[in-house]
Design goal:
Elements lengths: L20 H33 L6 H14 L1 H10 L8 H8 L10 H12 L9 E2 L5 E2 L3 E7 L5 E7 L3 H23 L2 E2 L4 H11 L2 H14 L6 E2 L12 E5 L4 E2 L5 H22 L1 E3 L7 E3 L5 E3 L5 E3 L2 H16 L2 H11 L6 H14 L1 H4 L17 H13 L3 E2 L2 H20 L5 H9 L4 H15 L2
Length: 459
């Protein structure tokens, strides 16, 4: 699927009086909750003003300030905002623009805190477990940061260390999400999404479990074993915990620094790395981002992050393939049947027609048999924003539609993947690539392969 707006969404010296760490963390969580409540309240007031008093929803300055505030908090609230930012019609456009691009600008953990966190994960003599360990991170993200280390055998290692207090942050941030979704649902009028809090919460809880991510790495390694130009890191179990993941370091060039011909090939490999596990085993990488991939000197695509994945039932994947076939055949009844496999229920004819128009746009690059970009930016400066707005209005007139929880994740993932292709300016025959991977698709075969992969990898 192409990129599109979703139909959904130094530690310092210790003070003389030592406060227990847990107490300090609770204090931080309380302050965090106040900030989130204030942020959500500001959005709610502006949305209510738009709906009931015909006041301007937001100014770009207010939206940007809100994004900056959320970015400072790091962690799950930022990922929640990114989810919601992919749902046109759910948020005012000003918020949608900044939320879809939200990244953390907060400083990483300082070396003293890193050392304390490493002691907590590997014990007092943690440094003896490595030949060398860089206390300053090479990369920082919303839930943790990555350090370069070296094993006693000389091998380079990547150590992904989670920020403190993230589990509490998830619980607190999700408590705010349910109310926010209900407000946004009323403002939208077309999309019923208040039930999505459980889906988002489940995915965030999984992403915080680094042992699960190690299992996901093993699963992708098995699924991509026959792809000679795609590399997956190997985890180091004895140097990993639920909040520390140590793995082999893969050298490579960031995709955005490549010449165009190499970008095209990297995009083709990324397309296969994303769709092959999904179409063959129902396992999806849910957070495509240029920073999660590099290209090695031999032309190998390195996959660097496996925290955000989702396992789909075989019937959902069948819906993806069936919809593609129905669009090729211009079979409207087949399209409607595919929507049902995705979990859309009780659709009237107007809602079905709106979803068919959306699907035609969504699959456009997979239908067009030629080398081409994945899509183009419209007059709003975004990919598909105009048609998404039209679809939203059509669904609103049709009485609204409940968004299946499973659809949220794949839609967000497709947005991220297509956005990578757009930023790369990649030109590929996407239909040919998809057809090769979907050839001979069988629901029962997928279900059997999925069980095998999950068992072998520990997922």
């Amino acid at each position: 699927m192409a990129s599109h707006p979703s139909l959904l969404l130094p530690e310092g010296r210790r003070s003389p009086v030592r406060t227990p760490i847990r107490t300090r963390e609770r204090g931080k969580m309380t302050r965090r909750g106040r900030k989130i409540t204030a942020a959500a309240g500001g959005v709610a007031l502006r949305m209510a003003g738009k709906k009931y008093l015909s006041l301007p929803t937001a100014s770009p300055a207010h939206a940007a300030a809100l994004a900056a505030s959320l970015g400072e908090l790091k962690g799950p609230v930022m990922k929640i905002a990114q989810f919601l930012g992919t749902i046109p019609g759910l948020l005012p456009e000003e918020y949608m623009r900044v939320f879809t691009r939200l990244q953390t600008n907060a400083p990483p953990m300082g070396p003293h805190l890193v050392a304390r966190r490493m002691r907590g994960e590997l014990g007092e003599n943690w440094q003896s477990r490595f030949a060398d360990f860089e206390l300053h991170p090479r990369f920082a993200a919303s839930l943790g940061q990555v350090h370069l280390a070296r094993g006693h055998g000389g091998e380079r290692l990547a150590c992904k260390l989670q920020y403190p207090g993230m589990a509490d942050a998830v619980a607190g941030d999700l408590a705010q999400l349910g109310t926010a979704l209900r407000i946004m649902e009323k403002w939208s009028g077309a999309l019923r999404v208040s039930s999505l809090a459980e889906e988002i919460g489940a995915r965030l809880a999984e992403e915080l479990d680094y042992r699960r991510e190690a299992c996901a790495m093993r699963a992708f390694s098995r699924m991509l074993a026959d792809e000679g130009q795609i590399a997956v890191p190997e985890s180091v179990a004895e140097l990993s915990t639920s909040a520390l993941l140590t793995m082999s370091w893969l050298d490579g060039t960031p995709l955005l620094e490549l010449p165009q011909e190499a970008r095209n090939e990297a995009a083709r490999l990324l397309f296969r790395a994303w769709y092959l596990p999904f179409l063959h085993a129902g396992i999806l990488h849910g957070d495509p981002h240029p920073g999660n991939y590099t290209l090695g000197e031999t032309g190998t695509l390195n996959l660097l992050d496996f925290g955000c994945i989702r396992i789909f039932p075989a019937r959902f994947v069948k819906g993806v393939v069936d919809l593609w076939k129905a669009l090729l055949a211009k079979d409207e009844a087949g399209m409607d049947a595919a929507f049902a496999l995705w979990g859309f229920a009780g659709l009237n004819e107007d809602a079905k027609a709106a979803l068919r128009r959306w699907a035609a746009f969504l699959y456009d690059a997979l239908i067009d048999d030629r080398e081409r970009p994945i899509g183009t930016l419209d007059s709003t400066g975004l990919y598909g924003r105009e048609i998404a707005a039209e679809t939203h209005q059509a669904l609103k007139k049709a009485g609204g539609v409940a968004i299946p929880p499973e659809f949220v994740f794949i839609d967000r993932a497709a947005l991220g993947l297509g956005s990578v292709f757009l930023r790369l300016g990649a030109t590929v025959n996407w239909r040919r690539e998809f057809a090769a991977l979907a050839e001979g698709f069988n629901e029962n075969t997928l279900a059997r392969k999925q069980r095998t992969i999950l068992t072998q990898s520990g997922l």
